[in-house]
From TrEMBL:
This is Uracil-DNA glycosylase. GO terms for molecular function: uracil DNA N-glycosylase activity. It is found in: Cytoplasm. Excises uracil residues from the DNA which can arise as a result of misincorporation of dUMP residues by DNA polymerase or due to deamination of cytosine. It catalyses: Hydrolyzes single-stranded DNA or mismatched double-stranded DNA and polynucleotides, releasing free uracil. The gene is ung.
Amino acid sequence: MNVRIHPSWKSELKPEFEKDYFKKLIDFVKDEYSEHKCFPPGPEIFAAFDHSVFEETRVVILGQDPYHGNGQANGLCFSVKDGIQFPPSLINIFKEIENDLDKPLPESGNLQRWADQGVLLLNATLTVRAHQAGSHQKKGWETFTDRVIKLISEHKENVVFMLWGGYAKKKIKLIDASKHLILTSGHPSPLSANRGYWFGNKHFSKANEYLKQHGRKEINW
């Protein structure tokens, strides 16, 4: 499986790659990809770590699982490939940006443009079997991505963590709130957003204001 990952992350994550749980996880993933249709495509499993350079990571957005429909997942949470119809959660993310920053809805739902600016778009589980949501959970991915969150918290300062929904909020315990900004709200899925738990959170302007205050470059959302 020919995955792509930026050298800056390779050096940071090397100890994790050598642990027994991770080796078992990779064996599981290889078996799944050889026997079933899985997403994202093999080379894009670590896309979040390929586009967002470790030293330049300024924002972390946490998702739970990759999209499991054909042609959707591209290895970045909430993101879809160019030309793919926007899933409901992504539509609500763009609507909040429109309300918050007065930016029109973009033509593409591919969030690579955010990742290239230092936004780590991290799913807690990096792979999924086609049309079977959650099928690769509790196989080791969560151990790995929890370690990634702790690594960023420990080794960096003034990073914005956006935790949306109950699952993401559980990760607060991994983050040092004394040197990072933690923004929480309901999930952008229609179930949560339509109950008033998402719209109006202004996370995107709050993130940029925090980055600006700490002399860091703002994100062009």
